Amino acid sequence: MNAPAISTEEITRAYIKVRTRIEKVVTEHKLQLKELEDSKDLLADALLEHCNMHGMDSFKTDAGTVTRKVRSRYWAADWEAMYDYVNKHKAPHLMEKRIHSKNMVDHLEDNPEDVPEGLQVDKKYVVSVRKPTST
After folding, report:
1. Which partner from 44, 78, 105, 110 sits 20 to 30 angstroms from 28, CA to CA?
2. Per-residue pLDDT reduced to its tens digit, 88-115
3. Distance (Å, whole) CA 110 – CA 104
4. What is the pLDDT of residue 3?
5. DSSP 3-state of 73
6. Which three-class secondary structure state does DSSP give residue 25?
7. Which residues pair with 59 in a beta bridge?
8. 3-class SS at 58?
9. DSSP characters for 87-130?
């Protein structure tokens, strides 16, 4: 005996229900993670203060070893100057390797005959589902 076919309306309704539930779970977890990250930051600040107060870069406890280190983050205030610097010093390793997908789509649409050698692309169909609008 064949099972009754599920209509596309029922599938769409179920899709929206599942997506809404996912959004709710993600939101709840983001709030929980934020609380945990805030607590961890407070504890890290207390450990850093201990290191600073005692002039230590590391210390051991029965619960674990704490190490203080400098973490640096870099960014460019002037990207043109940064590109010039990278070119001048032949230092492309200073940059991260990734392609801006939307900009590449636009570029290829404008230059369909000029595809960069070795460019890789992965395309697949996806669906987008919107809730019905009020009429």
Report:
1. 44
2. 999 999 999 889 999 999 999 999 999 9
3. 10
4. 67
5. coil
6. helix
7. 66
8. strand
9. HHTT-GGGS-----HHHHHHHHHH-TT-PPTT------------
